[in-house]
Amino acid sequence: xxxxxxxxxxxxxxxxxxxxxxxxxxxxxxxxxxxxxxxxxxxxxxxxxxxxxxxxxxxxxxxxxxxxxxxxxxxxxxxxxxxxxxxxxxxxxxxxxxxxxxxxxxxxxxxxxxxxxxxxxxxxxxxxxxxxxxxxxxxxxxxxxxxxxxxxxxxxxxxxxxxxxxxxxxxxxxxxxxxxxxxxxxxxxxxxxxxxxxxxxxxxxxxxxxxxxxxxxxxxxxxxxxxxxxxxxxxxxxxxxxxxxxxxxxxxxxxxxxxxxxxxxxxxxxxxxxxxxxxxxxxxxxxxxxxxxxxxxxxxxxxxxxxxxxxxxxxxxxxxxxxxxxxxxxxxxxxxxxxxxxxxxxxxxxxxxxxxxxxxxxxxxxxxxxxxxxxxxxxxxxxxxxxxxxxxxxxxxxxxxxxxxxxxxxxxxxxxxxxxxxxxxxxxxxxxxxxxxxxxxxxxxxxxxxxxxxxxxxxxxxxxxxxxxxxxxxxxxxxxxxxxxxxxxxxxxxxxxxxxxxxxxxxxxxxxxxxxxxxxxxxxxxxxxxxxxxxxxxxxxxxxxxxxxxxxx
Length: 553
Ligand code: ADP
Description:
Elements: E1 2-3, E2 6-7, H1 20-30, E3 35-39, E4 44-48, H2 49-65, E5 73-77, H3 82-93, E6 97-100, H4 107-117, E7 121-125, H5 129-132, E8 144-148, E9 161-163, H6 164-169, E10 185-190, E11 200-204, H7 205-215, E12 228-231, H8 243-250, E13 253-256, H9 263-273, E14 277-280, H10 282-294, E15 304-307, H11 314-324, E16 328-333, E17 340-343, H12 355-361, E18 365-367, E19 372-376, E20 391-396, E21 413-414, E22 417-426, E23 431-437, E24 442-444, E25 447-449, H13 451-459, E26 464-474, E27 478-487, H14 495-506, E28 517-520, H15 534-542, E29 549-550
Parallel strand pairs: 3-13, 5-6, 5-7, 6-10, 7-8, 8-9, 12-13, 12-14, 14-15, 15-16, 27-28
Antiparallel strand pairs: 1-2, 3-4, 10-11, 16-17, 17-18, 18-23, 19-20, 20-22, 21-22, 22-23, 24-25, 26-27, 28-29
Helix pairs in contact: 1-2, 1-8, 2-3, 7-8, 9-10
Adenosine-5'-diphosphate binds near residues 194, 309, 422, 437 and 529.
């Protein structure tokens, strides 16, 4: 508004770009001695952040020489390790786009993604060449491969192949990072495809910078220079939840498991290098507990473990707390949300280690500053933040995607808000709880049954190793739940144990929610990032491959 003829306007340097280059610069200069520690199976390789920038400059020089130009997508097909981190910085800081490929995708999805993005160069770990080889001929956009470490490069056919180390050694590192527009594309990632085909999301420098800052608040992970963060979540799974960028801003040392991803190997790494933070999906946490059931393990260095990507069973959290004094905490996010939308840090007035403390850590998250969230019912009305009313979660904010790469999906957006496809509740202190995905919730007689709630309760039963619940068609009720259970003693499978489990549930959920259909399986199928793959279970049911036991009322 005009006052004395003068309009009051910001005097700040508002056009100063928020870029990944400034993250890199900060990490290498202010926290130059912090380290990227790559596990080698029985010892670790240590590299400083100062050295990471030196190497990233050489890589940027080499990529320029290979013809990479601003805006070009450069793919990575790599483990979490030092070289992947160098690529994570070199590619966006030179103005190109780092496209992290999920190394566990089925061939048809992998080729679809590379061809969709039209990746120009691919950086591939030598140990993964046999995985890539079968699809190499179907990736016409790739002009050259860069191979990290050893490996039989003949598997890559007749396109130019460069060795990572030799390529960097040939450069002098005299490279100046260009000035970049903060809104330019920096990284791209496809959803993990739990409920459908993977879809591409493109992050900007600005969104990455702001997301990293937000995760560094004490309301979120809040890692510091004193921390050593075990990054179990792959760098191809939503930028390893933003850890590589947050680490350079905060000086947190990164622990990178490389190809040693079994729970037993992860425990070896934790014990040897004394990780203080660790982030993984619930199935990995469950695997670590199984290692602990077989041998004595030392998790005493970890001050906090975070879990996300899927709901965490309460029993798992309780066991970590009781057996190892390790507080786990849930976070929620999606590829589309960079990913963090909230971490369930209990409120200040709650006694640590109390039952209430655990109740809060079991929430999916507390809304992270910077993200706006609302819950919308079937009729499009916003539901109150009262902890009980349910609706689909919608979000908007500076690190939330506004569209998908290359496809038009108006149904995924609601007046500028991203429709997450997750259903949940929100309380009056900003704690939200995901009860299910819209595609997984079981619609029974006009009411909804949360498959996640049944799964988590079943996981707490002593007979059950793991359990997934899916909806199956029912003439009378539209759908009814089918519990697919992996027993600790598979030989017990039968009507008796199904009845025991049904009565175990009967005390905990409404009677009509208790499944009458049971099947005993060897393992719950998992997606490439370790989530329950309910598509596969529904397909197996559809093909009549599951032996169903039906309990009578
Ligand atoms: P995909 O949708 O293919 O699994 P993402 O890895 O992006 O790909 O997954 C995002 C989804 O993961 C969310 O929409 C939500 O359904 C689920 N999710 C993430 N965190 C949690 C959590 N803490 N509890 C329950 N579900 C979660």
